[in-house]
Amino acid sequence: MDTPDELIQKALDTKAPKDVVNAFLANANKENVKKVSDAIVAEDATYISLNFDNKELQQIEPWAGTRKGRQVYIDTFSNVGTYWEINDFEITDLISEGETVAVFGSFTYTSVEVGNKFTSPFSILAKVKDGKIVFFQFMEDTYASASSFRVKGTWEIQNNGKNFHVGN
């Protein structure tokens, strides 16, 4: 099995979209994300996290929404490792066609501040041109990730004419 550094070198050598995205994900922890981003993320790359622009969610998860620039990748993945303890991150499928890469899997995180643990599926749509990530959209169970910071309270929900409460 290749080390994270070997995966970066392989991505630089082949410039293959699948290798580039795999190298990024293998190094997307707060210790390595700057190095991998400098090597294989375009300076003006687009990053979409969870939604296009939800101001309420950005209060809970500041990286949510659409942003541009390599630094966004560094800040986002550094923050994930600060807000949560990463218990598990598993890629189940990584599919590549042309410059498009799709990734599917699951992860388990525990919020550092509150200690709430959750498991979520994830999906990624990435575009790679000339060996650099130019587009990256990350989707997860946003309700579960935001709820991992909940300390108290419930919501009253109305759906199909019925009211019910969710939360602790």
Low-confidence stretches: none
Provide the residue-averaged pLDDT: 92
Helices and strands, in N-to-C order?
A: HHHEHEHEEEEHEE
Gap between N and C termini: 43 Å
What assembly state would you assign to the polypeptide chains in this entry? single chain
Q: How large is the radius of gyration?
A: 17 Å
**Helical content band:** 25-40%
What is the percentage of strand-forming residues? 35-45%
Please give the order of strands in the largest beta sheet. Answer: 2-1-6-5-4-3
How does the helix and strand content classify structurally?
A: alpha+beta
Shape category:
elongated
Give the helix tally. Answer: 6
Could you characterize the architecture of this molecule?
With 168 residues, the chain is of the alpha+beta class. Helices cover 33% and strands 43% of the residues. The protein contains six helices and eight strands. It has helices at 4-14, 17-26, 33-40, 55-60, 70-83, 142-147; strands at residues 41-49, 65-68, 84-97, 100-111, 117-129, 132-140, 154-159, 162-167. Helix 3 runs antiparallel to helix 5. The longest helix has 14 residues, at 70-83. The radius of gyration is 17 Å and the shape is elongated.
